[in-house]
Amino acid sequence: METQYDVDFVLMRYAEVLLNYAETANETGDFATALDLVTQIRKRSGIEPGADNKYGIAATTKEQMREAILAERNIEFCFEGHRFWDLRRLRKLNILNNTTKHGVEAIAINANGTEMKLEDANVLAKTYTLKENQFKYSVLAGAKYRKQSEPGTRYLLFLSNSTISH
């Protein structure tokens, strides 16, 4: 039985393939390929080559290229949920230390305006019956939420440090 679907889901964008390849090339010592791949992405985006024909890429070392690729990923995948995982994979979460967490908190409310129990909200959320006006929205007070990370810890999701070291 063959099934047809009308909706296509993007699992991986071409830019991600190029940036993954660029990162791999750079880490294995192929700086020229890494530079070419990042240049391709910038060229595709309509960035001008500039007087030096380098498309704004100033990297000349492996370390600088690593940072350039990370910066390009941050721009290319803005609002796509990649940044946290990139920083985690590269063991750089600590660069967010002491930065402020921003966001909006949405709490489901009952018809009488009281806060709904989380269990009840979860049931309604699973059936998609909660509407926008059934939430109380508030901006998170940024100063209360400072990001902290311990360098060298919690980078392998389900493995404790004791498991890794054995």
UniProtKB/TrEMBL annotation:
Q: Which keywords does the record carry? A: Cell outer membrane, Membrane, Signal
What are the leading ranks of the lineage?
Answer: Bacteria, Pseudomonadati, Bacteroidota, Sphingobacteriia, Sphingobacteriales
- Entry annotated with the keyword Disulfide bond: no
Write the protein's name: SusD family
InterPro entries xref list: SusD_RagB_dom, TPR-like_helical_dom_sf
Q: Which family does it belong to?
A: Belongs to the SusD family.
- One Pfam family of this chain: SusD_RagB
Where, subcellularly, is it found? Cell outer membrane
Record keyword Lipoprotein present: no
Recorded GO cellular component terms are: cell outer membrane
Domain RagB/SusD span(s) in chain numbering = 4-122
